[in-house]
Amino acid sequence: ARPLEDAFRQATQGMAAWLVDTYGFQPQNAGLLMGQVVDYKIGNLVSNAFCVACTIERRFLSARAGGSQPV
Question: Using H for helix, E for strand and C for coil, what is the string for the chain?
């Protein structure tokens, strides 16, 4: 197993699920958005306790606030 890759994958899956659940994105469109605007931050690389954060600036989501319509 590769713990850093696992942490990266979990962060990505979490962001995709959040975009679908909170903003009403279709999974394919969440992936397209993420491919353009996500930023990853590595928080920890010590003793196989890896931490990765996947972030998107809110300005890319402001038009979608409330998840009023699927994209």
Answer: CCHHHHHHHHHHHHHHHHHHHHHCCCHHHHHHHHHHHCEEEEEEEECCEEEEEEECCHHHCHHHCCCCCCC
CA 47 to chain CA mean position, Å: 25
Q: What digits encode the pLDDT tens for the residues 21-64?
A: 999 999 999 999 999 999 999 988 887 789 999 999 988 887 66
CA dihedral 13, 63, 39, 27 (to 10 degrees): 20
In angstroms, the CA 71 to CA 64 distance is: 9
CA angle 24, 52, 63 (to 5 degrees): 25
pTM: 0.82
